[in-house]
Amino acid sequence: MGDTVEVAERVEAAPPGRPSRSILRRVGDEFLRRREASVLIVAVGLGVYFASAHPAFLTQPNLVNISRATAPTAIVAAGMVLVMVSGEIDLSVGAVYALAPFNMHYLVDYYSVPVIPAILLALLISAAIGFANGFITWVFKVPSFVTTLGTLNLVIGIVLVTSHAYPAPIPEQAAGRIQNWLGAADWSQLLWCVLIVGFFHLVLTSTRWGLHTVAVGGNLLGATEAGIRAGRIKIGNFMVVATLGGFAGIMDAFRINTIDPNLGGGTSIMFAAVSAAVIGGTALAGGSGTVIGAFLGALVLAELQNGMNLIGISANPYFLILGAAILISMIANVYLSRLRRAGRT
Amino acid sequence: MSKVDPAVEQAVDTLGLNPITRRRLLKGTGLASATLAASALLAACGNDNPSSGSAAAAGAGDFPSTPKWKFVFINHVTTNPFFTPTQYGAQDACALLNCEFQFIGSKEAIVAEMVNATNTAISGKADGIAVAVVDKAAFRGPVDQALDAGIPVVSYNADGAPDDPGTNRLAYIGQGLFESGRQLGLRALDSGLDSGEVVAFIATPGALNIQPRIDGAEQAIKDSGKSLKFTAVGTNADVVKGLSIIDAYAQGHPNLAGMLAVDAGSTQSVGQTVAKYSMRDKGLKVAGGFDLVPETLAAINGGSLDYTIDQQPYLQGFLPVLYLYLYKLSGGLLFPSETNTGLLFVTKDNVKPYLDTKTRFEGSSTEQQVVPRSGAIAHA
Fold first, then answer.
1. Are B184 and B149 spatial neighbours (Cβ–Cβ below 8 Å)?
2. Alpha helices in chain A (DSSP H)
3. What does the pLDDT average to over B139-167?
4. B104 CB near a chain A CB, below 8 Å?
5. Does A21 map to a domain?
6. B20-28 LR contacts (CB < 8 Å, sep 24+)
7. Is the per-residue pLDDT at A1 higher than 50?
8. How confident is residue B8, by pLDDT bands cut at 50, 70 and 90?
9. Domain of A173: which CATH number?
10. Are the C-beta atoms of residues B175 and B313 closer than 8 Å to each other?
11. Which of B31, B87, B102 is the closest to A312 by Cβ?
12. What is the ipTM of this complex?
């Protein structure tokens, strides 16, 4: 990430007329042409600002903090990008995020399932909720906003009723190695996040599934007439986001060492993921988006939260400043994208 | 720097920024400087704190000169009006002792966000941390890490489960939660509750700042041996949603003998609901709850609530700062002490002064003032 920026900066610094200019320029153009470039510049800019504002920002423990605030949002956002690109939205993912660790806990502690199979089963149940979302949306033609609003409340209800709205401890069998690998160790969440984001970036950009997802979201009629099975694409993407939501929920539970029925009130992680996706350049209307952009969007949100906590802004003015900062960063983002497009022609 | 208007500088001081940020802000560089300046001015406008702008050359009072220590409060509902007096308390203590505080955490009781904020305070090298321990497992690691890093930590307002404080904090400053719930129940029994249905409302079941209270109330009712049917009902952290849940419950259960609530929002909603359906005339023997938000006080005055329990949130901000300061000042010799911030019943008999005076101590005014009192002090 840092290297790319350096390249871009060197392009500007290179004196005109040198033979190397054209190569560097081409590299620079290539960089700026990427949809993620503008949000990357915003993310780096924020990093530079906070690093100069507080000496602790770039210390290792604080980078761990930032990575932990980024990872769950980015993981959910990776799935959300697929759903949004295919022209739908999933409001229920935050509830699945809360349910999955409880399912793991029930399976391990009440049904004596070993931890790893229990986690896989919990993810399977998450996927089933995603399937239901997709099925209802596609077969019964209920707009996904409404479908997932329904499942959001339904699943929150399941969480609250089955847990008696009481937090549960992490199953003892999971403590130690599994817990560390799945979220508790310093960099484990970031590691999973990078793997997942990388994988789904490839899925969206380089596979038939990704191509079809873009086609279905961009022009549903055209895509169906071209023989793409749109229902399968949409349902599949709903399953992806729900599974990722469940996985992020399990990792967050491991990290904070408790299973909390109030994980995000069911909406906060979903809202963060949608914001990250949109900040990263995914169109709300469908048809275009980028998983890496969503990761950077999540990073921007995490930097803002962490940086402002660090430089000592209390909760009440925080929202005022956060709002203004989002607006300013995104105006910069849109402006940079315009430059990018102008550069292409 | 010299071109900066002193009023602006003073406003910026209220933000409590570190020197680099402050300098960049005053120079007008940096991405967020305009918004920061705007918010500082806003904060300064709405804030009459006389000492917030004064720079400290010597130490506070007779104390030796100290660095401007920064204490971080980790809270579960940062924007909830209940904690307004807590923030005033911390602010006043900081003004007194020439230190600063920051109030962060989660807006809607999301434990992960609180853990993030705690970790940020640790990596930002805060001089002391006060944390509301609303989960008995999640804060153990972060608090140990802070202690390992030499940062003193106290808990305030919430302190894990009744049988397990949940962290290795140095001390707890707040109400004895289980005991206060038991008192809530005992008082209801004393007020003539002897048979029928009793409901107790709780905004966020399982959250350890209020769950022990409802457990305590249930215990008291059970121990009484009377033929009472106790039901606990979850409402919502959002007061408006909570009100409609309580309203619906009251409609569905017209024969309630007692209505209790264990958090500020539910208590005010119980008061409103009792008044709305004139439940006093329909066999409701007792209604009571917690905290002193204006709606609750009005309901007590109007007779729809019998009593509410004050836990003095101002002290939950003031005392942690004091304790953390003294710990730092004395090199750890003055150890923070466990403090019960109180269990004061406010009833129709003593509600008057709460209604008549607007003070920082209840969060109803920002003004610094001396509140006069006269007459005998009530005692048993």
1. no
2. 2-13, 20-33, 37-53, 60-85, 93-111, 115-139, 144-163, 177-179, 188-206, 208-218, 220-225, 230-256, 268-279, 291-310, 315-344
3. 93
4. yes
5. no
6. B20/A52, B20/A53, B20/A54, B20/A55, B21/A53, B21/A54, B21/A311, B21/A312, B24/A52, B24/A53, B26/B1, B27/B1
7. no
8. low
9. 1.10.3470
10. no
11. B102
12. 0.77
In a domain, A323, yes or no: yes
For B77-93, what is each residue's pLDDT tens digit? 888 888 999 999 999 99
Question: pTM here?
Answer: 0.78
In a domain, A225, yes or no: yes
Q: Over chain A, what is the mean pLDDT?
A: 87
Tell me whether A140 touches chain B (CB under 8 Å).
Answer: no
Question: A325: which chain B residues are within 8 Å (Cβ-Cβ)?
Answer: 31-32, 35
Count: domains in chain A: 1
Does residue B207 belong to the interface with chain A, where contact is any CB pair within 8 Å?
Answer: yes
| Residue A5: inside a domain | no
B115 touches chain A (CB under 8 A): yes
Say if the Cβ atoms of A56 and B103 lie within 8 Å.
no
- How far apart (Å, rounded) are the C-alpha atoms in residues B286 and B306? 6
8 Å CB contact between B307 and B288: yes
Query: Does the distance separating the beta carbons of A262 and B109 come in below 8 Å?
Result: yes
Task: Find the residue in A nearest to B37 (Cα).
Answer: A321
Interface check B205 vs A, CB under 8 A: yes
Q: Does B76 touch chain A (CB under 8 A)?
A: no
From CA B158, how far away is CA B150, in angstroms rounded? 23
Domain of residue A184: give its range: 55-334
pLDDT at B336: 95
Domains and CATH numbers, chain B: 1-47 (no CATH), 64-174+313-342 (3.40.50.2300), 177-310 (3.40.50.2300)
Strands in B70-75's sheet, in edge-to-edge order, are B100-105, B70-75, B128-133, B153-159, B172-174, B339-340
Of B16, B31, B39, the CB nearest to A312: B16
Yes or no, beta carbons of A258 and B17 under 8 Å apart:
no
- For B149, nearest residue in chain A (alpha carbons): A61
Residue B280 DSSP symbol: G
Say whether residue B59 is in contact with chain A using an 8 A CB cutoff: no
